[in-house]
Amino acid sequence: xxxxxxxxxxxxxxxxxxxxxxxxxxxxxxxxxxxxxxxxxxxxxxxxxxxxxxxxxxxxxxxxxxxxxxxxxxxxxxxxxxxxxxxxxxxxxxxxxxxxxxxxxxxxxxxxxxxxxxxxxxxxxxxxxxxxxxxxxxxxxxxxxxxxxxxxxxxxxxxxxxxxxxxxxxxxxxxxxxxxxxxxxxxxxxxxxxxxxxxxxxxxxxxxxxxxxxxxxxxxxxxxxxxxxxxxxxxxxxxxxxxxxxxxxxxxxxxxxxxxxxxxxxxxxxxxxxxxxxxxxxxxxxxxxxxxxxxxxxxxxxxxxxxxxxxxxxxxxxxxxxxxxxxxxxxxxxxxxxxxxxxxxxxxxxxxxxxxxxxxxxxxxxxxxxxxxxxxxxxxxxxxxxxxxxxxxxxxxxxxxx
Length: 402
Ligand code: PLP
Description:
Blueprint (H helix, E strand, L loop, with lengths): L9 E4 L2 E4 L2 E2 L10 H11 L10 H20 L7 E4 L2 H14 L5 E5 L4 H14 L3 E4 L9 H10 L4 E4 L13 H10 L3 E5 L11 H4 L3 E5 L10 E5 L25 H39 L9 E2 L10 E5 L5 H10 L2 E2 L15 H5 L4 H4 L2 E5 L6 H19 L1
The site of pyridoxal-5'-phosphate has 15 residues, from helix 3.
């Protein structure tokens, strides 16, 4: 569980300062930003149903509109094309259904490194509706080659729905979405990009990407859990995933989660404003962490550490690193005991001892895919956190070497 306030590496006590836990699992959930917390509390302070006509309803509507504009600004979209959902998972499901039901998609071409919230509904829908589905693997650099997507599209009945995430949650590898969208559109396909991990960490511009559907999640950028969005490039007539009242462009019925939405908006704005300073700051910290680890465990050594997706463009906050011979679950537990919180693979699959499907889709052997750890940094990460995390991991690697 992520702490609800900014994790601090040093806590003042009566006995003097003591070291607190180091939280480096931002790709699972980022700690709530103070701006988001204030917006959540503001939204909770009064009865807040944006559909009500009276003053309370109007105030609630104003909060939702502000959040819609803040979220739209993060990805260069029009506010009226933002559909709030319960998170990234629901947004991905909604986009897939919309593409099939209204967009008439007759086949699915998805990257094999997609998050389960794309892969699993794609497999379910394909089986349910008898649609051909192709899962396109990545190269060893973590990038899905546009030529491989094009080749899969060539074989797919038209129109197809193409899904390629903007940045991978495990390796941080940034995908060639604009290029794939261009060639997909030329083949009459619709394109979904899951920007859940990219938003707030690198600039995201829906118009430049050109994709038809873009999805977001509040808790990955310092907002509350349980809020997300499907952002549309064009006008789509309502085709509800959840039927009921006409909320959220008629696509997603139910009284809005206003506190979640308000917190999402505030987090999106804070992340957007901080991005020009934060991205280089985090890249420096991540590179320092990686450098310390590789220096202690050079690749040439028997137990040399391996960075996955490290040669390609990747998110500034993410480091995926394997330590041969030591299962990731063991590393996670040992680091937790040492006060450092990280993940093995994606958060949704942690707890299971299955190898990461992302790393196997990059061609890694199962064994290596079971040994990779993900360190992910964010807005409250300090240089001290990095020194402590590196020292804890190096101590673990040293024990392995003995
Ligand atoms: N997409 C990606 C790339 C993710 O990393 C995640 C969460 O791990 C999701 C989607 C799901 O988002 P949510 O937790 O808001 O449902």
